[in-house]
Amino acid sequence: MAMARGSSGLAYPERFHAAAAYAGFDGSPPDPYSSKFSNEVALLLFALYQQAIVGPCKIPKPRSWSPVEQSKWTSWNGLGNMASTEAMRLFIKIIEEEDPGWYFRASNFVSEPVIDGDMNHNPKSEPIIENGNAFPETKTIPTENGNLSDARDKDVVSESFGAVSVYDQWVSPPVSSPRPRARYEHGAAVIDDKMYIFGGNYNGRYLSDLQALDLKSWTWSRVEVKAAGGEASPVPVAPLAGHSLVPWEGTKLLSIGGHMRNPSESVQVMVFDLQLHTWSTLKTYGKTPVSRGGHSVTLVGTSLVLFGGQDADRSLLNDLHILNLETMAWDEVDTLGMPPSPRSDHAATIHAERYLLVFGGGSHTACFNDLHVLDLQTMEWSRPTQQGEIPSPRAGHAGVAVGENWFIVGGGNNKSGVSETVVLNMSTLAWSVVTTVQGHVPLATEGLSLVLCSYNGEDIVVSFGGYNGRYNNEVSVLKPSHKSTLQSKVIETPADSVSAVHNATNATRDMESEYGMGQDGKITEIVMDNIESEPTVNKVEETSECLLAALKAEKEELESSLSKEKLQTLQLKQDLTDAEAHNSDLYKELQAVRGQLAAEQSSCFKLEVDVAELRQKLQGMETLQKELELLRRQKAASEQALSAKQRQRSGGVWGWLAPPPPSQRDDA
């Protein structure tokens, strides 16, 4: 890879003035290297400089016979009404084409630091320092098949760790520590300045380790898992792959679903506490989704949206479930419209906190490149028309959103890995190719991870792992380019108007690299909007007003919805307060009833004791009655016997002579 010198984003007009000073214009002494410019190039540089500083040529043609003055006037006048910004751009481009190392040698003219940068435009040619962000330049670079494709404006930027990369190009950071085991279908998430990797698949074996990559020092470390409170040893975590890893509450990682050797019936949600270094199973409620892997999980506010995947029986799914992280309740959503076909290993993201986008994925026999959008307010699916360079079918790719741009990396199509990195503008649904990697590299793999993080105040995209015939554990970094504040538009210009620059100096230099000829004899050129052009300004203002009106309408709608939600929340809180008060009263009544019941139970126990005592006394009374009856009988018998004896004694002689009364005979 060639090396070049470049500025860290030196913008216009400073970059133009630096180039002019280097070339000997702008009142500075001519640089000794400027003598190597040919007469044609020198005249063209003069004309472009005058056009940029003064504007179109208004002075009359010189009458002197000096060929130099005649050539200068002809060159300048030949540029016509070319815009000042366009003249600046062409001036710098010519300088860079003639002397790619101009910025290094121009360090005496500018105060901007100069750094080394890796340029990956064309390995067979000298590197070229691209323009700054403010005025992007249309580039043409060769692709694998020899065709020309548009490339974005890229600036060389400095990294504190010593490596330098251009925008929209993949580079490898200097990872110094031993890397974790190679894998794919793992989970990745970023919290603070660390990227965490959990689980994955290596050679058919599921993994359960948790690794951390420090994004400042670019060193790997294995995260120690400790035992939870009251436990003697750490809770073993089942090895898994095809799961999702989501950051939560700033100090926790959520692992949702995944393929396991002994799968459960439903999706499990595991949580790792980065402060306690402990794993635990999150208890959820509601209708839990069936166990699966290869699904997508998207964080939307305080909810997780789960879509698709493949269950333990290898059945493909296209159901939608939402987990509320405040109530920990699952909800299976019945959607409207035509949902995506059952699939796994797709990519999903959220746009404007309302629209869920699902791209690609695969079935058992095919890969997809369709795009589906779910409106989370109406819960209706749609399949919009995609614009631009629609990506090829793929599965196992990874995606990450940077603002309104959705970057898609890697994946496969059952034949080979996908080598290009593509981006979708989620507002216009237009695809474009960011960059293409060459050869059998880790980025052209399936099952890799992709995360977005901040490094030195800039967004960077970090990829890890994947499988493309071999398992990878490489780390790659891409810096998405920042959009210019000036708008660009595509216009069609007659081919004759392009010849103004050629006629200015009759130069033999080929300008076809600057313009792309169309089949209809016209030239499609990306140029900057002319600030002095009233129609363009009016059109931009009208577009801005329409966009502002639409945003205001949407804002009012969202505020209205928010007000309704707040009112509903207040009503629910009031209902909850009333219910709690009612429950408190019922609880008090229950406690009173329980007290009364306890008192009654105590009284009953005492009565039972009294009854038992009375029964004992009653039994004693019955015995006494029997004894009394027996005594009465004995007394009666004794009295009768005594009476009989008394009568016998009182009868005398007459008693012997006279017979006794009948009653006495009966007694005898």
What does the model show?
The radius of gyration is 47 Å and the shape is elongated. Helix 2 packs across helix 3 (67-77) and helix 3 runs antiparallel to helix 6. The termini are far apart. With 668 residues, it is α+β, with helices and mostly antiparallel strands. The strands form 10 sheets. Strands 16, 17, 18, 19, 20 and 21 form a 6-stranded mixed sheet that branches. The longest helix has 124 residues, at 534-657. Helix content is 29%, strand content 27%. The chain is built from 8 helices and 36 strands.
Keywords:
alpha+beta; five-stranded mixed sheet; 29% helix; six-stranded mixed sheet; 8 helices; 668 residues
Low-confidence stretches: 1-9, 28-34, 107-164, 483-537
| First-to-last CA distance | 153 Å
Q: Can you count the beta strands?
A: 36
Helices, by number, come to: 8
| Apparent shape | elongated
Strand content: 25-35%
Rg, rounded, reads 47 Å
- Class of secondary structure makeup: alpha+beta
Q: State mean pLDDT (0 to 100 scale).
A: 78
Largest sheet geometry: 6 strands, mixed
Helix share bin: 25-40%
Sum this structure up briefly.
By secondary structure, this protein is of the alpha+beta class. The chain is built from 8 helices and 36 strands. The longest helix is centred in the C-terminal third of the chain and has 124 residues, at 534-657.
